[in-house]
Amino acid sequence: MARSPAFHRSLLCVLLSLAFSPGLGLAAPSDPSGPDEEGHGKRSPVRPTVEPVADLFFHLETGLDGELPRFELDRAWLGARIGFREVLTIDVVFDGARFADLADEGRPTPLMGFVARAFAEVRPVPRHPDRLWLRAGQTWTFLVPMENRTGGHRQVAKGWADRHGLQKSRDLGVSVGVAPIGRRLEFDVGVFNGGGFKLPEVDRHKQVNGLVVVRPLEGTPQAGAGLFVAGHLTWEPRDADGGGRLAHRLGVSLLAGVDSHQLHAGVEIHRFELDLAGAPSTVGGVAAYLHPTIPIPGARLGPLPLEVEGQARLDFVHRNRGEPAELWVDVGAGVALASHAAVSLDYGFTVVGGASNPEPEHRLLATGRFRY
């Protein structure tokens, strides 16, 4: 006997309700926040977003002074950022690279694995997540990431403070950031171990860092929308000797320039007092850089545009009164695939002042960068 359409619809509804009933195990748990299968706490009712992080720098380097050319892996980052509705983010990134601190001591530097970042970030104002953030764990410090972001081309040359061993890019600690009127005005304050992310803490003192950034034209259609002025302060007490004498490490930096995709240009002024109790040691200097990015008309690889990148950078370093100054110069050019890949060729040299010092050191660097 023929069945009516209404009968078929009723039968279908009954079958679906049976198939997804909890008794058959096909339905979602009635309590999504209940314990997991191993009893490890409660499941989150919020489905997280996962953003992969991959960053690879490699280069072919020669000293142009009889040294053999060598391939080097400068950075190999792999990790992920796991976000929960812009309120909580967990960031874990691993780094495979050489231990630069051992290279400074003239020791062999095999490839080693590190935890580059491992921190939790909370943004407690859901309607304005960019106004307040708190981080805890192995996270960014302030000065070196600011230099890398505004100066660009980190795969070719580090920022001034990192290149000359005065500040680390990441460290263990806690920090808080406030942007009361958005990116136009930003304050960051953090307390860190002070030794960097590759070294353990060696004393009972902590390093305090502070950063203020002003972007007066942020969010405007004007050509100078990337204009910024920033000031950074770092202070850290240290045990000067076994007798309990306390030394202080103080650093002040001023940065100004333009930070946009098409143009990175600016000037930095730095001064670090490494010991204010007893025998002071001063390191100061200036950095100037110009990194334009020019699109190639009509040139694309799939959805990504091809661009030409240029680099010109000058570092001046003066370590103590009476000691010779140093001048570092880097120039080069390359081709980039948006911000995801680039190849470049760069030439640089270093001059140390004083008539008794050796000839300038020349270097040639062919670099590849891949980033997601």
Description:
The chain is mostly beta strands and 372 residues long. 9% of the residues lie in helices and 53% in strands. The chain is built from four helices and 17 strands. It has helices at residues 5-19, 100-104, 143-151, 160-163; strands at residues 49-62, 70-84, 88-98, 111-122, 132-140, 170-178, 180-183, 185-192, 207-214, 227-239, 246-259, 263-273, 282-301, 304-318, 326-337, 341-352, 361-371. A 16-stranded antiparallel beta barrel has the order 1-2-3-4-5-6-8-9-10-11-12-13-14-15-16-17. The protein is globular and about 65 Å long. Mean pLDDT is 79; it is low at 11-40.
Q: What keywords describe this structure?
A:
17 strands, 16-stranded antiparallel barrel, mainly beta, 53% strand, 372 residues, globular, 9% helix
Write the layout of secondary structure elements.
Blueprint: H1 5-19, E1 49-62, E2 70-84, E3 88-98, H2 100-104, E4 111-122, E5 132-140, H3 143-151, H4 160-163, E6 170-178, E7 180-183, E8 185-192, E9 207-214, E10 227-239, E11 246-259, E12 263-273, E13 282-301, E14 304-318, E15 326-337, E16 341-352, E17 361-371
TL;DR?
This protein is mainly beta and 372 residues long. It is 9% helix and 53% strand.
Main sheet overview: 16 strands, antiparallel, barrel
Q: Cα distance, first to last residue?
A: 63 Å
Number of strands: 17
Tertiary shape = globular
Low-pLDDT windows of residues:
11-40
The helix content, as a percent range, equals under 10%
* Strand residues, percent: over 45%
Tell me the number of helical segments per DSSP (H or I, 4 or more residues long): 4
Strand order of the largest sheet: 1-2-3-4-5-6-8-9-10-11-12-13-14-15-16-17
What is the H/E string? HEEEHEEHHEEEEEEEEEEEE
Quick check: average pLDDT? 79
The computed structural class is mainly beta
Radius of gyration: 26 Å
